[in-house]
Amino acid sequence: MGVELDEAILRILETHEITDQAVLQKLLEAEGLVPSQSTLSRHLKRLSIQKVGGRYQRVEPGATEPSRVNVLEAPPNLLVLKTAPGYAQVVAVILDRSPDIAGVAGTVAGDDTVFIAVTDPSLLGQVREQVEELLRLT
User: Fold this and answer.
1) Contact assessment for residue 88 and residue 112, using Cβ atoms and an 8 Å cutoff
2) Do both 90 and 124 map to the same domain?
3) What is the gyration radius of the CA atoms in the chain, in angstroms?
4) Are residues 76 and 125 in the same domain?
5) Is 63 inside any structural domain?
6) Are residues 45 and 25 in the same domain?
7) How far from the centroid of its chain's Cα atoms is residue 73's Cα?
8) Each residue of 83-135: pLDDT tens digit?
9) 41 with 86, same domain?
10) Three-class DSSP category at 46
11) Residue 65, domain member (yes or no)
């Protein structure tokens, strides 16, 4: 339920003004996800979602959280992204939803690492540039 719950939370927050965790929980339940209040709170914290101005929204990580994503090539056809703890799944969702990156077969995310499978080894450098541009790393 982890990645699916993260994606649902992000999607709901993009389309609704959520002012109460109970409302968010009910919208998640309508999608077939039934997280406990403590599970929901942990996911909100990991996704950097806080109540600001009376509603829940994503906020930039604090100065103590490294916000930089490092991209490493792992030939022949893998890119490895290192993120701050808890941010890999969010980065993977961003990459998976981007129609602008050609040559990506898919992603696998852990807590602080994303693996990107590139369809053709000759595209590895090009995909890296596209990923860095999307995440504004250059």
Assistant:
1) yes
2) yes
3) 16
4) yes
5) no
6) yes
7) 20
8) 887 788 889 988 988 888 889 999 999 988 999 999 999 999 999 999 998 88
9) no
10) helix
11) no
Question: Which domain does 21 fall in, by range?
Answer: 2-58
Report the domain count for the chain. 2
CATH of the domain at 53: 1.10.10.10
**Model pLDDT for residues 17-67, shown as the tens digit of each residue:** 999 999 999 999 999 999 999 999 999 988 989 887 778 888 765 534 445
Residue 23 corresponds to which amino acid? Answer: V
- Cα within 13 Å of Cα(80), Cβ side: 9
Place of tokens 């701050």: 84
Q: Report the distance separating Cα 29 and Cα 78, nearest Å.
A: 36
Q: List the one residue out of 128, 44, 133, 118 whose CA is nearest residue 81.
A: 128
* DSSP conformation class of 121: G
Query: The tokens of 23 are what?
Result: 């409302």
Q: How far apart are CA 38 and CA 21, in angstroms?
A: 11
